Amino acid sequence: MTDKCTGCAESQEKAKELQKIIAKYKDTRGALIPVLHEAQEIYGYLPLEVQREIANQLDIPLAEVYGVVSFYTQFSINPKGKYRINVCMGTACYVKGANEILDKFRTRLSIDVGECTDDQKFSLDACRCIGACGLAPVVTINDEVYGKLVPDDVDDILDKYEDL
Questions:
Q1: What residue numbers bound the domain in which 45 lies?
Q2: CATH number of the CATH domain containing 34
Q3: DSSP bridge pairs for 144
Q4: pLDDT score at 149
Q5: Is the pLDDT of residue 5 over 70?
Q6: 88 belongs to an annotated ligand binding site
Q7: How high is the pLDDT of residue 142?
Q8: Do 60 and 94 reside in the same domain of the chain?
Q9: 93 labelled ligand-binding
Q10: Residue 6 in 3-state DSSP?
């Protein structure tokens, strides 16, 4: 398997970890989703090269692997930042201005939904209801929850993470 860091120790170590995961599940019915979860833990996302390796090793079509990866929202084909921003776009959040908050994040970070900043510090996603409707509109950054937001809150929130 190859990736952007061909030959480097980190890349080789990740490839070895992936092989161990695939071997662990190879003869298990329904192995694809657990393999994808663990592969994403290793790489942070599921690049095409990793999907191809999983397909080859599990002897399933690449189209099937890609179909699962692109269907389930917990899988990503794009790198994620150190700080993963999720703006809830569920009904309660949306009607209370989540779209304006999302726009403020887009503008401030100069990225769109599904993208990551060049320094790999922030990634931005929109998600469906996270079950915190009483705090609408809600944003999560990794495991931190921010509620009852207005667009003017975005700068202060991002400043907190830029200083880390």
A1: 9-71
A2: 1.10.10
A3: 141
A4: 97
A5: no
A6: yes
A7: 93
A8: no
A9: yes
A10: coil
